[in-house]
Amino acid sequence: MEKTITSSIGKSQVSHSQGKTRGYTNYTKSKPRVSYFRVNEDSSPYNDWNKEEEDNYDEPVSDSLDKFKTVIPNYDGDVTVIPKKQERLNHEDSGSLLDGLFSGRDFISSENWVSNEIIKSRIVSSDNDFVYLDCIIDLETMSLEHRRFPKNLFSNFKSLETGTLAIINLKSKPNSFRVDVYFGEGMIDPKLFDVNNDLKDLEGRDLGTKLRGEW
Questions:
Q1: Quick one: which of 120, 146, 151 has its CA closest to 133?
Q2: What domains, with CATH codes, occur in the chain?
Q3: Which residue, among 186, 126, 118, has the nearest Cα to 155 in the 3D structure?
């Protein structure tokens, strides 16, 4: 006894014969239902079926059909399935994907800061809450200020020993202020903080001695 499998999608049907089982696929608007029927060898193809339901699928119809482009029966009763060609994403598709991901979230792709100040600094000391640094405010005049920053900003530093170099990046705009701290080793010349040469003229001077005019 041969098997007849009938697949019905909408108004189209596909049938082929291969054995002793007759089955059909019934797609509805809500859920697809796949059933198989065991056919007695002495029964008519249209009656005396012993229904054996083997599987149910809860996935939407569109998800099931997207895997295939078309189904074509041939003369031997086999079904030829032509797989759907996979499309590659281009830059526009990628941009649309990102827009969709962040459309419902508070995400700022780019920020325009009013001021962006980069300060070269050197750690002087630290305690449980703050790190104290000598910061070069003006490279031309070599103006230094002693500032402190929250210690948690330096959590990526392996050491907070005196003399450790750091780059402080201060960004600000209305209603917002941001501080970024980076390693300064290899990016800052340590000699910038060496002020011994500038104080040599003070050696041996009495506190009552009048300083030169440039002072």
A1: 146
A2: 4-83 (no CATH), 115-198 (2.40.50)
A3: 126
Q: Please tell me the pTM assigned to this model.
A: 0.43
CA distance linking residue 52 with residue 49, whole number of Å: 9
Nearest to 166 by CA among 198, 196, 128, 132: 132
pLDDT digits (tens, 9 = 90+) for 52-97: 444 444 545 445 545 544 555 555 555 555 555 656 655 555 556 6
The CA R_g of the chain, rounded to the nearest whole Å, is 39
